[in-house]
C-alpha cells in the first residue's frame, strides 16, 4: 500500500542529503545554516510527525475493524445457533400431545390396535429424533434433584421414600435448545415428612 506521507518524507530526506552533500563539497565551510536547509529540516520534521500520526490512526482503524469482524461473526453464530427457537417453541405443545397419547395407548390383543400402537410409537420416535437433530434436548427429571434453573415446581409432597428436593413426578417435560432453556419441566418435588 503506497503511503503519500511516506513518499513526501522520503523526498524531503533526499533533498536534505543533497543539500548537505553540496555544502560539504564547497571549499569554505559555512558557519551559518542556510535558510533553505532550515526550511527543509522543518518540513521534514512536520512530515515525519504527520506520518506518525497517520500510522497511529491506521493501527487504531485496523484494530477497530478486527473487533467489528469478531463481533459480527459472534452475532451470526448466535443467530444460526438459535434461529429455530421460535419454531421449536411452537412445536412444544405438539410434543406434549404426543407424550399424553403415548401414556394412554391401549394395550390390546387385537392386531389392529397393536399395529396402531406400534405406528404411533414409531412416529413419536421419528419426531423426537428429528428434534434432536436441531439440538432440542429434554430437561432431565428422572432421579434428579430439583433445579430452579431447569425445573418449575408445581407442588410439594411429603415422602418417606424420597430425599428432600427429589423430583417425584414430571407433569410436563422441559426442553433445552443447545444450552439455552426453552421451557422448564413442570414437576412435583418431595419434602421429608415432619415428625410430630
Detailed description of the structure:
Helices cover 57% and strands 17% of the residues. The chain has 196 residues and is α+β, with helices and mostly antiparallel strands. The strands form 2 sheets. A 3-stranded antiparallel beta sheet has the order 1-4-5. Strands 2-6-3 form a 3-stranded mixed beta sheet, with no helix packed on it. A hairpin with a 2-residue loop joins strand 4 (175-177) and strand 5. Helix 3 packs antiparallel against helix 4 (111-133). The longest helix is centred in the N-terminal third of the chain and has 48 residues, at 35-82. The radius of gyration is 39 Å and the shape is elongated. The mean pLDDT is 86.
- Report the helical percentage: 55-70%
Average pLDDT, to the nearest integer? 86
Distance between the termini: 86 Å
Main sheet attributes: strand count, strand direction, barrel closure: 3 strands, antiparallel
With strands numbered from the N-terminus, the spatial order across the biggest sheet is: 1-4-5
Oligomer: single chain
| Unreliable runs | none
* Structure annotation, total helices: 4
- Cα Rg: 39 Å
| Shape summary | elongated
Give the strand content.
Answer: 15-25%
Order of helices and strands: HHHHEEEEEE
Q: Which secondary-structure class do the elements indicate?
A: alpha+beta
The tally of strands reads 6
Features:
single chain; 196 residues; alpha+beta; three-stranded antiparallel sheet; three-stranded mixed sheet; 4 helices; 6 strands
Amino acid at each position: 500500500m503506497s503511503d503519500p506521507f511516506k513518499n513526501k518524507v522520503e523526498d524531503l530526506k533526499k533533498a536534505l542529503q543533497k543539500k548537505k552533500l553540496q555544502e560539504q563539497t564547497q571549499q569554505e565551510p559555512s558557519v551559518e545554516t542556510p535558510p533553505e536547509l532550515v526550511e527543509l529540516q522543518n518540513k521534514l520534521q512536520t512530515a515525519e510527525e504527520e506520518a506518525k500520526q497517520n500510522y497511529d490512526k491506521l493501527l487504531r482503524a485496523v484494530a477497530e475493524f478486527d473487533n467489528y469482524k469478531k463481533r459480527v461473526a459472534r452475532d451470526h453464530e448466535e443467530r444460526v445457533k438459535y434461529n429455530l427457537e421460535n419454531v421449536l417453541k411452537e412445536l412444544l405443545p405438539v410434543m406434549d400431545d404426543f407424550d399424553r397419547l403415548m401414556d394412554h395407548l391401549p394395550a390390546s390383543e387385537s392386531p389392529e390396535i397393536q399395529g396402531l400402537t406400534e405406528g404411533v410409537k414409531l412416529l413419536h420416535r421419528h419426531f423426537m429424533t428429528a428434534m434432536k437433530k436441531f439440538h432440542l434436548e429434554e430437561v432431565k427429571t428422572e432421579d434428579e434433584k430439583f433445579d430452579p434453573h431447569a425445573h418449575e415446581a408445581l407442588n410439594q409432597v411429603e415422602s418417606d421414600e424420597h430425599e428432600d428436593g427429589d423430583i417425584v413426578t414430571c407433569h410436563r417435560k422441559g426442553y433445552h435448545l443447545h444450552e439455552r432453556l426453552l421451557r422448564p419441566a413442570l414437576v412435583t418435588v418431595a419434602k421429608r415428612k415432619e415428625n410430630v
